[in-house]
Every structure is written in structure tokens, then in C-alpha cells.
Design brief:
Elements lengths: L10 H9 L8 E5 L11 E5 L4 H14 L3 E8 L13 H11 L5 E4 L1 H11 L5 E5 L9 E7 L4 H16 L1
Parallel strand pairs: 1-5, 2-5, 3-4
Antiparallel strand pairs: 1-6, 3-6
């Protein structure tokens, strides 16, 4: 009897596949290094993947790309660009591989504490998924802030402008 495809996926990836169809704009998925803190808001679910950081980033990126209902704004810790090789051996090679993996995507650097604060505030109303990996390079977490995949900021602005114009009459 053949196994179904999800039975061979790691538990974290099965959970990602369960949640992504439920998620929409304002939900976040974070691929975090091993020292990322567990956040205490009830809307934040943390999973230790035991996996390679780049493999988890790839899986999240690909799952979002395959989804029709969401797209992601990618955020990264601003500090990441300033960590030096002597302080974190292997960071140069990791940066190169991460840049290759995210080539073509816009990645916005934001100070780490600001990102943590954004997650904290958003999680009071919306769910977040934190996928902790085995990576031991500081400031290496990748933050995927989800947005509507079939609606643009420009379309939203036109809608709001039309609403305001109708109210002015």
C-alpha cells in the first residue's frame, strides 16, 4: 500500500502545509536560528525543526510561491550584514548561499528588536509560525510577512480612494 506524500515529510513541514492554506495577509512565518527566543503570545507557534536552515528557508519560500492566495514580504535582521567572520565563522559562506536562495526577492533589513516587536504586536490578532533550525549564526533568521497574493497595494489604494470620493459627494 503506497504511503501518501505527507507521511514522508518532516513534522514541521507537515505543519507548514496545514497552516499555509489558513494563513493570509498579516500572518508571519519565521525561519529562525537556534537561539531565537520562544515568544509568549498565544498566537505564536514555535517548532524545533532539527533541520538545516537553508533547507527550511527553501521549503517555506517554495510553499509560499506555490500558493495562489498569499505572497511574502521578506525581512531580515539588519545586524546580519555587519556580523564579521572572526566573530561567527562560516557567516560569509552562509550569506552567499542565502543570497543565492533568495535571488530575485526583495529582502528588507530591519533591526532585530524591531522585527521581534512587529511579530509580538501582530501576534495579538494574527497567528505566527516560528520554525527554529539548527543554525548557530547570529541574526540569520528570515521573516516572511504574508500578504494577499491576488490583491496589490495599488489596487487597495484605488479602492480606498474611490470610497473616499464616494463619501465626499
Amino acid at each position: 500500500m503506497p504511503k501518501d506524500a505527507t507521511s514522508v515529510l518532516p513534522a514541521w513541514q507537515q505543519r507548514l502545509n496545514e497552516l499555509l492554506p489558513l494563513y493570509g495577509h498579516r500572518n508571519w512565518i519565521v525561519v529562525a536560528d537556534s537561539a531565537y527566543p520562544v515568544q509568549s503570545q498565544p498566537g505564536v507557534e514555535s517548532i524545533v525543526t532539527g533541520g538545516d536552515h537553508l533547507e527550511v528557508v527553501r521549503a517555506v519560500r517554495d510553499a509560499i510561491a506555490a500558493s495562489r492566495h498569499v505572497r511574502a514580504h521578506i525581512r531580515a535582521d539588519k545586524e546580519f550584514a555587519f556580523v564579521q567572520e572572526p566573530d561567527s565563522p562560516g557567516i560569509g559562506e552562509y550569506r552567499r548561499k542565502l543570497n543565492e536562495l533568495l535571488a530575485g526577492a526583495t529582502v528588507t533589513p530591519i533591526p532585530h528588536l524591531e522585527l521581534i516587536g512587529q511579530i509580538d504586536r501582530a501576534s495579538t490578532l494574527f497567528s505566527m509560525l516560528i520554525l527554529k533550525t539548527n543554525l548557530t549564526i547570529p541574526y540569520s533568521s528570515v521573516f516572511f510577512e504574508l500578504d494577499c497574493g491576488y490583491w496589490s497595494a495599488e489596487a487597495e489604494k484605488r479602492t480606498r480612494d474611490a470610497m473616499q470620493a464616494a463619501q465626499s459627494k
